[in-house]
């Protein structure tokens, strides 16, 4: 039997899932947490086996919580609960070690089945997880640190840098504002430990990242 931790900042969601899980024969105990900090503490102290992890939490996100929990308790099986099947979230959740994801709009029985499957060692992937998304996970794992920390969109932006494009050109390609590109580049620079685009390009070339086509 499994100890299940439900992580969500909405009490109604937590209690609804708890009520369903407590009637399951494979569940021995249901724990609750509303924040990243609580989730890490409950997962370790409560020796959780399976975790239903909300993505948006008051003090961070479920992906960061997943990393922290698995670092302390590698045997945990974590299923991410998301509001949508955003591809970046899916890829980053899988990279962080999640055993899968379900969308909150899914039937509650689907969520329970996903948690049971994960607890039995399976991986639960939503129907929108395409081969290209899984390829993205594989490519991310092949990149050396610190480039393995970049999101798919951030890697795409670096690819445009390698092609010699200015911020305005990148913004046009990605159909976002130039300000958004500046903000995302700031995040990229921080993650890979550089201070400007020239250094970013040099480091990206060193690790073999390809330019955008």
Overview of this protein structure:
The protein is of the alpha/beta class. The protein is built from 10 helices and 7 strands. It has helices at residues 11-21, 36-45, 62-72, 87-96, 108-119, 131-142, 152-162, 167-174, 178-192, 197-206; strands at 2-7, 27-33, 50-54, 56-57, 60-61, 77-82, 100-103. The strands form 2 sheets. A 5-stranded parallel beta sheet has the order 2-1-3-6-7, with helices on both faces. The mean pLDDT is 86.
Give the helix tally. Answer: 10
How many beta-strand elements? 7
Instruction: List unreliable stretches of 5+ residues.
Output: none
Our measurement of the CA-to-CA distance between the termini, rounded to an integer number of angstroms, reads: 51 Å
SSE series: EHEHEEEHEHEHHHHHH
Which geometry do the CA atoms define? elongated
What is the oligomer described by this structure? single chain
Largest sheet: 5 strands, parallel
Write down the Rg: 19 Å
- Strand order within the widest sheet? 2-1-3-6-7
Measured by DSSP, the beta-strand proportion falls in 15-25%
> By helix and strand content, what is the structural category?
alpha/beta
Mean pLDDT: 86
Fraction of helical residues: 40-55%
